[in-house]
Amino acid sequence: MKTSIAIQHEVNGPLILEEIDLPAVRPDQAIVRLKAAGLCLSQIHEMRSESFERPRGMGHEAVGIVEEVGGDVTHVKEGDLAILTWVPWTPVKGRKPIEFTGATLDGETVHGSFWGWGEQLLTRAEYLVPVPPDSPIDVSAVIGCGVMTGAGAVKNTARVSAGDSVAVFGVGGVGCSAVMMAAALDASAVIAVDISEDKLDFARTIGATHYVNAAETDPVEAIVEITKGGAAFAFDTVGARQAAEAIVPSVRGGGPGTNNVGGLAVLVGNPEPEITIKPEWFVGHQRRLAGSHGAMEPQTDIDYFLEMHRNGKMPLEKLVTRSYRLADVNQAAADLAAGKILGRAIFDLSD
Fold first, then answer.
1. Could you tell me which residues come within 8 angstroms of residue 198 by beta carbon, excluding any fewer than 6 positions away?
2. For 252-295, how does the pLDDT look when each residue is reduced to its tens digit (9 = 90+)?
3. CA-to-CA dists, residue 348 to 92, 98, 269, 308, angstroms
4. pLDDT interval class at 99 (50, 70, 90)
5. How many domains does the structure of the chain reveal?
6. Is 141 in the same domain as 164?
7. Residue 216 and residue 135 share a domain
């Protein structure tokens, strides 16, 4: 079987729509006819990285109709509407292994455990989550990475509760999802931090109560002033060094005693190699620093996000602001890299 997907052949090279060969479905695999796929900034990092082998299929959040499943697959079946996510259905300990689908291009291995920018997807069924057939396609296309990464960090890593104050550095697709989740959990203050006035204005429409333009104002000072001492939680969804180094002093300090802990800073975005953090922020103030990497349970959280959307608590339809055809994949990637996309963009892969 052949199908067309976006392939990158070299670092920083263009994406080319190519027909690849799909092998017979393994017992643990499934084929999905894709309906829509999201554009994530981490794909731009991947396209620029020498760490990944090529030729490589692109895209890691999508939604489509299951066309075929292997004999060992039980949680999805043919005809299901299913979301692609890079968090496996079955919980794993540590990092998941590198996997190959078996797809080839002119006899050469197509690298990647999955892809979303194409006509059909072949992957282990572990990366597919069935959802109700009436689930909105545009919203479903971005849940598998953007929503679950940002909202999952707020809900599951930080466990934000009503009345907590939250600061989110970077309000792209992941950051906006964090903003919406914090607002849905009734945080007392949801502070959006970015250098784009357009993105900050957009964040206010989806739940941000305050915003700070970090190009004009010291964000740490602004957050400390807004929260009267520091946020309970701060999230870096960008990965830039300045943001990673700012989230710890943005959270409130604690002091001596077992229950006098400070706030929690959470690294979410793809990080730069090094950051500098003062030890006194931890020892003297009991502040905490954590990482969050797809902090979601696919079996329960995707249904939770969809339900929060259905009942109006998370207006995820506002997150999807642009749509492209797959033929325009390089223009879409360029727009994403240039910061021209508010919220999240998708590829419309419908016939």
1. 342
2. 999 999 999 999 999 999 888 999 999 999 998 999 999 999 99
3. 32, 28, 26, 24
4. confident
5. 2
6. no
7. no
76 with 186, same domain: the answer is no
Q: Which one of 291, 320, 340 terminates a domain? A: 291
Edge-to-edge strand ranges of the sheet holding 165-169: 210-213, 189-194, 165-169, 233-236, 264-267, 288-291
Q: Which domain holds residue 218?
A: 159-291
User: Do 97 and 124 touch, CB atoms closer than 8 A?
Assistant: no
* Rounded distance between C-alpha atoms, residue 13 and residue 16, angstroms: 9
DSSP summary character for residue 276: -
- 151 within a domain of the structure (yes/no): no
CATH code for the domain of 272: 3.40.50.720
The residue count for the chain: 351
- 232, 164 contact by CB (below 8 A): yes
Q: Judge if 175 and 225 occupy the same domain.
A: yes
Q: Is 152 contained in some domain?
A: no
Question: Prior bond to 55 cis, omega within 30?
Answer: yes
What's the whole-model pTM score?
Answer: 0.96
pLDDT score of 96? 73
pLDDT for residue 95: 78
Same domain for 287 and 306:
no
The C-alpha atoms of residue 308 and residue 326 are separated, in whole angstroms, by 30
CA distance 178 to 167: 9
DSSP result, 139-205: HHHHIIIIIHHHHHIIIIIS---TT-EEEEE--SHHHHHHHHHHHHTT-SEEEEEES-HHHHHHHHT
List residues bridging with 27 in a β-sheet: none
Q: What is the pLDDT of residues 33-83, one digit of tens each?
A: 999 999 999 999 999 999 999 999 999 999 999 999 999 999 999 999 999
For residues 2 and 343, give the distance between their C-alpha atoms in angstroms, rounded to a whole number. 33
Q: With the C-alpha atoms ordered 341, 291, 86, 9, is the resulting torsion angle positive or negative?
A: positive
Q: Provide φ and ψ at 277, rounded to 5°.
A: -135, 135
pLDDT at 328: 98
Cα dist. 182→92, 98, 286, 298 in Å? 27, 33, 23, 20
Domain boundary among 269, 291, 313: 291
